[in-house]
Amino acid sequence: MSRISALDNDLYKFSMQQAVLHQFPSAKVEYKFKCRTPGVDFRAYESDIIKEVNKMCRTVCFTDNDLNYLSNINHLSDDYIQFLKLFRFDYKYIYIFTDNSGDLYVDIKGPWLHTILFEEPVLSIISEIYSTDMSNNFELFENRTKEKIKLIENTDIKIADFGGRRRHSKKAHDYIIKEFTNNCPNNFIGTSNVMFAKKYNIKPIGTMAHEWLQAHQAFVKIEDSQFKALENWAKEYRGDLGIALSDVVGLKYFLKDFDLYFSKLFDGTRHDSGDPIHYGNSIIKHYKDKGIDPKTKTIVFSDGLTVPKALSIYNYFTDRINVSFGIGTNLTNDFDFEPLQIVLKMIKCNKAHVAKLSDTPGKSMCTSKKYLDTLKFIFDEKIKGNG
Length: 387
Known about the structure:
Blueprint: H1 11-23, E1 28-35, H2 46-59, H3 64-71, H4 78-86, E2 94-98, E3 104-111, H5 112-115, H6 119-134, H7 138-152, E4 159-161, H8 170-183, E5 188-191, H9 194-200, H10 210-219, H11 225-237, E6 243-245, H12 251-257, H13 260-265, E7 268-271, H14 276-289, E8 298-301, H15 307-317, E9 322-327, H16 329-332, E10 342-349, E11 352-353, H17 369-384
Parallel strand pairs: 4-5, 4-9, 6-7, 7-8, 8-9
Antiparallel strand pairs: 1-3, 1-10, 2-3, 10-11
Helix pairs in contact: 2-6, 3-4, 7-8, 10-11
């Protein structure tokens, strides 16, 4: 396995890193790995994972060609591009080991500005080492990819690739992007992976991720954190990158903060946990209650999707609100085994606990139950009008 490009990362990591550079350059953070797939013994993979992450830290940097490409992405600023000239992955910020039961621990601690780009490449390294050991049945993968293309090619559904972090391999990732780009260009609107967006001259896609909103729990009063995160995003991008992530503290709390100003300013929202039909209906009602035509807004669905599931959601919401779909693991790792469900999430910022309070309970993440309970209580009080 060879990671040869610093662009082999998700666009939203670069977008958030720029905002961190401009607004929180001295923030310190901690990230922790979690494998939601039960019973995986990582001991056989530990040395290879460490080797590949170490190699990435020693060899990966932004080339002049990389920087030239990034400089043509409108929302990335000149000073940020200059910063990337100096950026290197630093191995001193990451600690990887397995315990006697085979559980894998990946702890990242250091300046937010210098650790934010680790998440996607580290997860893809772990996924690739495990996945290529489990299967290399590319004939099956190619056939399944062709079946997905047939399902969407005569529809108007819009799909993007969000599958870098849990991909089978770079080869599989490359294949699906090539096939979708060549065979259903009207349906395939881009990829979150900047390297492949550059290679295939398609749109790089992505706005913010959970950590942007989580970190604000350490910067301001907890009840103000989500509002301030959205406000600071708008301050940074002035209406660009206008899809708001809505599940860091749960949908009902999000809608409390997503006031008329934000509802008008942002182009739409991203669904990443909870029931998608309930979510879409709630968002549509929210816009109507604010006097906004939902047909002028977009929902990006991105939670554990398959192509058939995306089509079902698309058909349900047709003519009610614009929808598009970010499909991850099912595009890039659809082989004859169960792919890993792995995440690498921020757990502390400036030594304070932060949390993701998901609409899907198994996706919540925090290392302090006391803080998680406090977060929920504070936002419950806010809903009641006491905060």
